[in-house]
Amino acid sequence: MLLEAKGINLRFGGIRALTDVSFSVRKGEVFSIIGPNGAGKTSMLNCISGRYKPQEGEIIYRGKNLIGRSINDRAAMGIGRTFQNLALFSHMSVLDNIMVGRHHLLKNNFFTGMLYWIGGARKEELKHRRDVEDIIDFLEIQHVRNEPAGTLSYGLRKRVELARAIAINPDLILLDEPMAGMNLEEKEDMARYILDLNEELGVTVVMIEHDMGVVMDISNRVMVLDFGKKIAEGLPEEVMENEHVKHAYLGEEDELLHDDEAEAAAL
């Protein structure tokens, strides 16, 4: 397994955001996390990326426990991330926004800076710019490479944020609602880019997404959270037939869960 979460518990004061959540992600798959609003999906991504530190549990990535490691350490280990709310530098160009994603890859230091005149640092910068241009070509944003990110349409800005996440050369990328707010055409484009990222570049994807059509079409496996608890995991078609999942999405009282809890209390 590329990634394993074991018994994750996350609390904010008296509020439980995640309760004993465990799952695994295989190398090379698209793994989607779904659930109603407030189910704990983004909290789970934040635990993986390092924005939140769970009170209990382990997150194992390539055999190493991520708990206690910084966000920058996790990026250096090959974990990229996009956000539900755009986090671009609006005044900076598309090219420069993507270059920000490569900062931890820069080898330039004081010594190489002193030797700049022999071209070492310059060569390094040119290599990174070539790599960024490849990403720009991959996501078909050549026509806006020099435009300020804040002037772009919403769909293009989401694509630029994906480009910046790709720029760290991730083995694992965390996508938080990559298609939120998009029209049908933009969603179709983004779904294609995610599949190409996974299939052509070999990047493992963990994705939060509310569009069930997209989830069913591009996911290898799906996990469902509800009120911070995992209620289902498996193939997309199996998960969508799960009675607990149906109740969670319909917003109805889940009689099955209450029956289970009543039976447990009677023991």
Automatic annotation (TrEMBL):
Q: Which GO terms describe its cellular component?
A: plasma membrane
The reply on keyword Transmembrane is: no
Transport listed as a keyword: yes
Provide this UniProt record's keywords sorted from A to Z.
ATP-binding, Nucleotide-binding, Transport
Q: Which residues form the ABC transporter domain?
A: 3-252
The GO terms this record gives for MF are: ATP binding; ATP hydrolysis activity
Q: What is this protein called?
A: ABC transporter
Source organism:
Kiloniella litopenaei
